[in-house]
Design goal:
Layout: H1 5-20, E1 23-27, E2 41-47, E3 50-56, E4 60-63, E5 67-69, E6 72-79, H2 81-94, E7 104-109, E8 112-119, H3 121-128, E9 135-140, H4 143-154
Antiparallel strand pairs: 1-8, 2-3, 2-7, 4-6, 5-6, 6-9, 7-8
Length: 158
C-alpha cells in the first residue's frame, strides 16, 4: 500500500524544503487565483480566517541564484529586517505556531498564482521562538518560473 498523501507531504517537508526554507510543498502548480497588491511579486499567508500579505518584492533584501533539484526549482532570498519583523507579527497574530498545518504560503507573480506551500512546523517554531532570521527558499514548479521571479526581484521591480 503506497503512503498516504499526508505522509508523502510530511516527508517532503521534513527533508529538502523544510530544512532549507521552512516551507513544505503542497501544490507547486499555478492557478487562476489573483492578488490585488500592486507589487509584481507578493507572498500571502492563508489559513483559518486569515488572508494577509506577508511580504512583497520590495521587502526582499537579497536574492540568490535559482537552484534546481528533483521536480522543482528553489530561489533563496532574505527579507529586510522590517519585513522579517512583519512576518513574525503576522504569524503570531494568526496563531500559526499553534496549528501550522492549517496555513499555507501563497506566491503571486504579476497577479498569477505561482506557488502554494504549507508552513513547516520547524518554521512556525523558529518564528515563535524568535530564532527566524528572514531567510527563505521559495519553491517553484520549474526553473523558468523561478528565473522570472528572480529577475523581477533582482532588478528591484518586485
Amino acid at each position: 500500500m503506497p503512503p498516504s498523501r499526508r505522509a508523502t507531504l510530511a516527508a517532503i517537508g521534513a527533508t529538502a524544503v523544510a530544512l532549507t526554507a521552512g516551507c513544505s510543498s503542497l501544490d507547486a502548480g499555478g492557478g487562476a487565483t489573483e492578488t490585488t497588491a500592486d507589487a509584481a511579486f507578493v507572498v500571502r499567508l492563508s489559513g483559518p480566517e486569515t488572508d494577509r500579505v506577508l511580504f512583497d518584492g520590495g521587502d526582499v533584501a537579497t536574492v540568490g541564484e535559482v537552484k534546481t533539484g528533483g521536480s522543482a526549482a528553489r530561489l533563496p532570498l532574505t527579507l529586510t529586517d522590517a519585513a522579517t519583523a512583519d512576518v513574525v507579527e503576522t504569524f503570531e497574530t494568526a496563531g500559526v505556531d499553534e496549528t501550522p498545518e492549517e496555513y499555507a504560503i501563497l506566491q503571486f507573480h504579476e497577479g498569477e498564482a505561482v506557488g502554494r506551500f504549507g508552513v513547516a512546523p520547524s518554521l512556525a517554531e523558529a518564528v515563535a521562538d524568535g530564532e527566524w532570521d528572514g531567510r527563505l527558499s521559495l519553491t517553484f514548479p520549474d526553473r523558468e518560473r523561478a528565473g522570472e521571479v528572480r529577475s523581477t526581484l533582482a532588478d528591484g521591480s518586485g
